[in-house]
Design a protein that fits this description.
Order of helices and strands: EHEEHHHEEEEEHEEHHHEEHHHHHHHHH
Oligomer: single chain
Strand content: 5-15%
Number of strands: 12
Strand order of the largest sheet: 1-7-8-10-9-3
Shape: globular
Number of domains: 4
Structural class: alpha+beta
Distance between the termini: 22 Å
Helix content: 25-40%
């Protein structure tokens, strides 16, 4: 297939506002000279290929982010117009859009995978919003690119719903993330083998428009480094610093050192926030790590229900559990060492890289202490509180206590009349509640004693805990319920769930069911517990 065979793009006219684009990535960096072929191939000396999204037969808007739409400049009427669905399915383009797919490599499950690239993601361009901020608009599932590796470049409805919901849920939790503007059904069927068992089946197709100031990943730097292309690597480093880290002082090697240190610090803060809310990414390959420290690529993710540091939502990772919940801080550090290795040739010496890696450890430790204090409702985290949290986690694990509900219940403990009663809803198994009741009461006694020594009053403590411990998280079974409804043609569940996740820390009368324990039927059901990497 050739790029010229794609659907011819056009400007949709006055139904949508004129947007300002500054496509610096394409303008400043070397691109693929091949403009015709979309066949899988090795692309050298270039960080992107110009491509066109493939035409979709019947685009239909299913959901959108009202906050993000307003930021870009769309009214509700414009979002609900036919032109919007056409643009954000890739069928039409606004003036200034210049679609491209980027070229990167990566370590997958600890092994170098070589060239990967945007196999089903096509960036429409870099938007400049009314505040002068940059937002790259990227369609996921818009068709083949030279990096599709023989796949079709499409995405299915179930995975697109999950990415759309999670991007926005993470934003409202206050966690650095890419965001999702829209979810559009394409009107076509996509063949997928959901369980990798040799039984592919047609599924409805969909496209998410996701946004970020940049989609540059660790793997963008790893690929030219692996090929010995120091000139391209240096170009990309300088471009990234100038466009995305312009606030950093200095120049040359000193500024590059500051940049790597900042990347390490941002990564530490992001992963610490994952651990705070019980989020498990599921596929922390280096090609899924944002250079901006954003959560990116929502595939087989999940939230901890019953507390288990060894849990992974990814069926592909079920045996090795490399990307399990409790291992995420170490994996992030390992990924940063891969990035550091890629940057050796453009640094004056290794000292700056070692310093950056140490900053990751220091920032993560500081974040962890801050989070321990906030989650337990303390004014500050003493050394004894680290051990206190570890002891609580052991009880939660042994007793299979729900993570989110446990911390919500702790905020209701009355130090003058301590009781384990508020914690009862957190147990999935009443027999385990009885078996570990004494250990929990002992822990609670020590915790209450610590609260009585802390200067925070009861109201300040509850306020602090409620701001750190979400009441509503995007549990896998909740997402699956909205997927089940959508598969039957009822798309209202997507917006309903999104609306709940827009206020994760608030009490929401009438919506208590969204904060409940995972039901027993969802413990092992596909989509409600573990998921595959299948799109």
């Amino acid at each position: 297939m050739h790029a010229d065979d794609q659907h011819v793009t056009a400007t949709p006219g006055s139904e949508l506002p004129a947007l300002k684009f500054d496509n610096a990535f394409v303008r400043a960096l070397p691109g693929d000279p091949e403009r015709k072929s979309l066949e899988p191939r090795s692309v050298s000396g270039a960080v992107y290929s110009l491509v066109q999204p493939q035409a979709m037969p019947a685009p239909k808007l299913l959901a959108w982010s009202p906050e993000l739409a307003r930021r870009i400049g769309f009214t509700q009427k414009q979002v609900q117009s036919e032109a919007f669905a056409q643009v954000f399915s890739g069928n039409l383009q606004l003036d200034g859009m210049q679609p491209f797919a980027t070229n990167y490599g990566g370590h997958q499950f600890g092994h170098w995978a070589g060239q990967l690239g945007d196999g089903r993601a096509i960036s429409l361009g870099e938007l400049i919003d009314a505040d002068g901020c940059r937002l790259e608009l990227q369609l996921k599932g818009a068709g083949r690119t030279p990096y599709s590796r023989g796949a079709d470049g499409r995405a299915v409805l179930r995975s697109s719903i999950r990415e759309f919901l999670c991007s926005e849920a993470m934003h409202h939790l206050g966690i650095p993330t890419t965001r999702a503007l829209s979810l559009v059904a394409t009107g076509e069927s996509v063949l997928r083998d959901m369980f990798y068992d040799g039984h592919p089946a047609p599924e409805p197709g969909a496209i998410v428009c996701r946004t970020a100031p940049s989609f540059i990943r660790f793997g963008h730097f790893e690929l030219p480094a692996s090929r010995g292309d120091t000139r391209l690597l240096e170009q990309l480093v300088e471009f990234t610093i100038e466009r995305d880290f312009s606030e950093l002082p200095g120049s040359g090697a000193a500024r590059r050192a500051e940049w790597f240190s900042e990347v390490c610090a941002r990564t530490a803060r992001m992963v610490a926030e994952w651990m705070r809310v019980g989020f498990v990414h599921g596929v922390m390959n280096t090609d899924n790590m944002s250079i901006l420290g954003l959560t990116i690529d929502y595939g087989p993710y999940g939230w901890i229900d019953d507390f288990d540091p060894d849990w992974t939502p990814n069926t592909t990772d079920a045996q090795g559990r490399r990307y399990r919940f409790g291992h995420q801080p170490r994996v992030a550090y390992w990924n940063l060492t891969r990035l550091a290795g890629a940057l050796v040739s453009v640094m004056d010496n290794d000292q700056a890289l070692h310093a950056g890696l140490q900053r990751y450890l220091d920032v993560y430790a500081a974040c962890d202490r801050r989070i321990v204090a906030a989650k337990l409702g303390l004014s500050e985290c003493a050394d004894e509180d680290i051990e206190r949290m570890q002891d609580l986690h052991q009880i939660m694990r042994d007793a299979q206590m729900d993570m989110s509900i446990t911390y919500q219940a702790l905020s209701e403990i009355d130090p003058s009349h301590p009781s384990v009663e508020p914690l009862q809803p957190a147990f999935y198994d009443t027999s385990l509640a009885q078996r570990h009741g004494d250990a929990l009461r002992t822990w609670l006694s020590g915790y209450v004693g610590r609260l009585l020594r802390d200067p925070l009053d009861a109201q300040a403590r509850r306020t602090r805990m409620h701001a750190a411990n979400p009441r509503f998280v995007l549990r896998n079974y909740l997402a699956q319920q909205s997927i089940d409804r959508a598969t039957q043609g009822d798309y209202a569940g997507i917006s309903e769930l999104l609306d709940v996740m827009r206020r994760p820390y608030d009490e929401q009368p009438g919506r208590e069911a969204f904060a409940a324990r995972r039901p027993e039927w969802a413990r092992h059901r596909a989509g409600s517990s573990m998921l595959s990497c299948s799109s």
